[in-house]
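Homework-ish question, so no full write-ups if that breaks the rules, but can someone show me the predicted structure for this set?
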Amino acid sequence: MPYRIEVGLKPGLFDARGERSKKQILRAFPDLDKNIAVRCIDVYTVDGEDLEDTWIGDAFCDPVIQDIAVNTPLTREFTWYIEVGYKPGVTDNVGRSASYALHLITSRHYPVYSARAFLLLGDLSRSQAEKIAGDCLANSLIQYVRILDPQEILEVKPHISVVSLNHVPAVHEVSLDLDDQGLVKLSREKTLALNLEEMKAIASFIADPEVRRVRTQAGLGEKLTDVELECLAQTWSEHCKHKIFNAEIDYRENGRSERVSSLFKTYIQGATRDIRARAGEKDICVSVFTDNAGVIRFTDDHHLVFKVETHNSPSALDPYGGALTGIVGVNRDPFGTGIGAKLIFNTDVFCFADPAYAQDLPPKILHPVRIFEGVREGVEHGGNKSGIPTVNGCIVFDDRYLGKPLVYCGTAGIMPVEVAGVPSHKKDIRPGDLIVMSGGRIGKDGIHGATFSSEELHEESPTSAVQIGDPITQKKLTDFLLRARDLGLYRAITDNGAGGLSSSVGEMSQLSGGCLIELDKPLLKYPGLDPWEILLSEAQERMTLAVAPENIDAFLDLSVQMDVESTVIGTFTDSGYFQCTYDRKTVAYLPLDFLHGGVPRMRLSAKWEPNIEPDPRTPVPEDQNAKLEEILSRLNICSKEYVVRQYDHEVQGGSIVKPLVGQCADGPSDAAVVRPVLELSKGVVVSNGIVPRYSDIDTYHMTACALDEALRNYVCVGGDPDHWACLDNFCWCDPVRSERNPDGEHKLAQLVRANKALYDYAVAFSCPLISGKDSMKNDYIGPGIKISIPPTILVSVIGTIPEVEKAVTMDLKCAGDLVYLLGTTRKELGASEYFASYGIVGSSVPKVDAESARTRYRNLHQAICSSLISSAHDLSDGGLVVALAESAFAGGLGLEIDLNEVACEPGMNDTEILYSESQSRILVSVSPERAHEFESIFAGDARRIGRVIPEQRLIIRSQNNGKLIDRDIASLKRSWQAPLDF
Amino acid sequence: MTQIKALVITGFGTNCEMEMSHACRRAGALSDVVHISDVLNGSTRLTDYHFLNLAGGFLDGDDLGSAQVESVRLKYARIQTSGRTLFEEIRDFIDRGMIILGVCNGFQALVKTGLLPGNPMGKRRVSLSFNDSAKFEDRWVRLAVDLQSPCIFTRGLDRLFLPVRHGEGKFVCDNNGTLEEINNGHLAALKYADESYAPTMEYPANPNGAVDAIAGICDATGRIFGLMPHPEAFNHPANHPAWTRLKELPKKGEGMAIFENAVEFLKGII
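A: Not a homework solution, just the prediction itself:
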C-alpha cells in the first residue's frame, strides 16, 4: 500500500509560500475577496511498503517547523484543497530527491511522487477554485490538478504518476514512394518539419539502386526505417542545420538585385575571417564556429568560452520548465566545448508582452504575467542551483512577444589552455573509441524538440516537446566530468541538446568517420520506448563522450563513485556510416556524407521595400517633469531589480561590477565584471545589446545599434576595446514566403539587411563574431490570428579588463564632479521610447558612426585605465535624460545640466535633445582635478554639459536658459522603481 | 610549526567550494576541496584536517527543504572503510578540539543535523525556514557581532558587511527555551542590523524575518559556527557592492577576518 504523506508548517509560523500564492491569485483575480487565506503544503506519495515512522520523519519532516501526517489529512481546515502534481513522465526533481533520501536510509528503491497542495479558505465556489487552479497554480500540459472539499479529502487516494506504456518497442519501415502531396503530409504528420524538396531528396536517396544494394548487405530493407527517417529530419532541421542562413538568396532592393550565397558564410564567418586576418598576432580567437561555443584567449594559461541560446517555443508552453531547460541546456554548450570548460557566469535576456496585458488571449497562449513569472523562476532555479552567477541581462517588452516570448540564456566558461598536455579547445576521436553517455536517463521527454522549434507555434504543437531541467543531476554530472577531464579519462565531449543522441553522436562521428550505436544500451526512465525515440529523445542532463578503451574502467569507476550514471552505448568507427543496432539487428545505416551533406540547399528570395512614415513634428509635453517620470516608468526603462535580486549574482566569489550598483545598490549597471581566477586581478567583462523597436524602420540599423549598445556598455565599465568578441543571436519571424506567410520576402530582406550590418559593423569595430544562434519561426498561428515577433537580435559581448580595480560604475560619485557627454546628439527619435510613448514610429532611426565610436571607446578605456573617471553610463532607451536621471539617483546626488552645451545637430529642440536615442554616446563624470588630463585625451569629443551637485535634484536648463526640468531625484527613482515591483 | 589544514567538502549541489577554499588559503591554511564521495569511500579522512568547511549551495537541490537530505546523508550513509557514519566522524572531529564553519547551505546542514546549537549534540532544536518574502534574494546586509560571544570566528570584530543569497534563511527555534539558551549563552554571534549596526527586524536589513534577527550561531565552545551570510564572497575588497564609491580601496575583503580568526585560533591550539 503506498504512503500518502502531507507536510506543512506548524500553525503559528508564517507561511511565506502560502502568502506569495495568495498574492499571485489576487493579482490574477482582482475581484476576489481579499480576505481569503492560502496555505501551502507538500504532498509525497511513496510507492512501497515497510517504512518505519522514524524513516519517514527523517526524510520528509523538519520537526522544528513542520507537522507531518501519513495516510491522513494534515488538516481539514480549508474550503478547497487544490493538489497540483506532475503528470506521468514529467521530470519530478523533488520526487527524485525524496526517493534518494529513502535510499540513503533503507538502501532500497522507493519511487516517490511529489505534489504541492494549496489550501484555500474563504467564500469560494468549486468553479472558482477550478479557475484559480487553471489560471494560477497549474499548467495542464504537464500537471494534474485535484480539487477536494473537507469531506472528499477523507477519501483521497495516493496519486501515482507512473508511466506505463504497454508498448512493445519496434522498428517500422516507412515508404517514401509517395506523390508530392503524400510527402508533405508525411512530413507534417510526423513533425519532421522537412519541406517538399527535402522529402524528395530523401525519397530519391532511398530509391537509388546502389543504396539499396548496400542496405541489403547491411541487413536492411529497401525502405527507410523510422529510425533513419527521424534521424535525418533531426539532422536536417532548421534548428540543427541553419538552412535559412545557408540558403542561396536573391535579394532585391530599389530595382537592384544581388545573389547572397549563405548569409552565415558571407557575413558572419566572413566578418570574423577578415578581422582575424587583419589582427595577425593580436588575434584573440581560438576556436570559432566549429564547436558548441566560441573560444577566445583570456590569459597565457586560460581561454574563455561563451555561448548564448534561445529556448522560446518550450517557454511559451511551459515557461518554468522551458526556461529552466534553457539555462541548464546552454550550460552544456561551453561545458561541451573542446574537452570541457568550467562554467563561470550566466546572462539572461527576456522579451515579453506587457505583464498587465488586458485583452483576450488566443488559444494555447498563457498570460504574459505567467510567462514572466514562470521564466523568471525557471532561470532562478537553473542558475542558482547550478552555482553559476547570473551577472547581466535585461528584459524587453513588446506586445508582439505575446505569441512567443524570447528567452535568451547565455553561459561563459573558462578552460586551461592545456589539460594533461593536450590543448583543451580541440576534440580528438579515434576509431575504436567508445561512445559513452553520462548523466540522466532517456524518456519520451523532448522528443521532436528540434523539429518542433523549427515550426511556428500552433494549436496542435506537440506537448512532449516540453520538459523540465534538473540542475542537481547536471551539477553532479559536471563535477564528475571536470574531474575526469583533468585526469585525462576522455578524449572528446559534447552535449545532448536538440536531436538528442542523433545529433551529438552524429556530429562527433564526423571526427572519426563513423559510428555504431547500440540503441538497447542507453538507460531508460521506463520501458517501452521505440528505438527511434531513444535516438531522438532530448531528455536533459546528458553528455556524450569519446573514451579510449584503455580508460573506460577508470572512467566508469569514478562515475559510480560520484553517483553519476554512465553507459557505453557504442563505438566510434571509420566506416563512413552512421549505424544503429537494436537487439543486434541493424536499424539504421546512413552514409555520413548524406546525413550531414545531403540536405538540399534552399533557394529563397528577398525583397526590401522600406515601409516608413516620415517623422511627425516631435510632440512637446506641457509638463516636462511629469513626462520624464512617465518615461522612467515605461517597461523598457524601469528598474528590473525585482528579477535581478532573485538571481545569485556573486556565487564563485569573483563579482566585481554587479548588476545593481550605486549608493543603495539599486542603480542599473551597464555591464558586468567578474574575476574568474581568484588569484588574478584580470577580469572578464560581459554586456548585451538589444533594440528590436528599431526593426520597425530598418533591421540594418537595428543590428548596428544592438552591436553598438553592447560595445558601449562594455567600455563603460572598463572593458578593453582591443580584446573583445561577440555572439549574435537572431530571433526572427518566418522569412520563407508561403501561402501562410505572404510577407516572407520582406522578412527575409530584413534578415539580409541585419546580416549586412553585422558584417559592416563587426569589421569596423574589429570585434570578431565567435559563435551564435538563430531561431527563425517565432510566429504564432491561431484561429484567425497570426502574431509575429519583431525581428530581434541580441548581441552579447565578452572581453577583458586588465585590472579589475580600475573598473567604473554608472552612479555619480561626488558633488563638484564635472559632467561630460561623449559623442554627438542627432535628431534620431525614430522608433525611440519617446516616440513610442505617443504611439509614433517615424523614420529617423539612429545610425552608428563606427569610426568615431571606436576612437571614443579607446579613449574612454585609456581614461579609465588612468583612473580619470568617476562614473560612466551609456545612453540608450530614453536617451540623455534617462541616463542623467539614472546616474543621479543611483549615486544619491543631483545634477545641474545645460542643454546649450550638448553637441547636437542644428535645429534640435529641447525635447529632442533630451530623448534622442543617437548611438555611441556616454555620460561621464570627472573630478575637477582630473578634468584637464581627461579633456586632453578626447580632443573635443567630450563636451562638458554640467556638474554634480549635493542637492538631491535633477536640474536641466533649456537652450533658452529657462529651467526645463527640476525634479527631486527620490521622486524620479520612485517612478523608475514602481512598475515591476511585484 | 604545524601547518593548518582546511577541508572544504563539495559535491551533490554544493557550489561555493572554490571561493571558500581560496579564503582559507589566503588566511594562511592549506586547503583541499574534496568531493563528499571521497570521504564516503574512505580516501579522505577528517583526522587529517583541522578546519572543516561546509560551503554554500543547494545540496540535493534543497528539494525536501534546505539541507534536509544532507542531514539524512550525515546520519545514515556509512563510510566504506570504517562502517561509521559521517555524523560520528564529525563528532570525533569536534571532540578532538577542531573547528567547523558552515555557510548558508552549510549552516542549514549544521542545524538540521543538530550539530548546532549542539546541546545535546545531534538534536535538531533550531531551523532555517522560508524567507518571509518567500523569495530567494541576493543582497548585502549589515551584521552586528555579539562581543561576548564565545565564537572564535568573530573574535575582535564588532560588525560585518556581507552578502546573503538564500530563499530559506529565516532562523527559528523549536521553543522559547531554546531561544533563551542561545541568547543567554551569547551563541548568536551575528545579528542582522540596521544602519547604526543595531539588530533589526525591519526588511530588508533583516532579509528573511529571522527570530531576534539571528544571522549566525555557534555552539557553546565557540568552535562550531554557522551563518547565512557569505564571508567567502567578500574575499577581495572589490567584492563590496559600492567599492567604486570608496576614496581608497581597503587591503582586503571584510569576510577574510572570519577565516583569519579560524587560522589564528588553530595556531594557538596545535
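Now go work out the reasoning yourself. Hint: The domain at 3-155 of chain A is CATH 3.30.1280.10 (Mth169; Chain: A ,).
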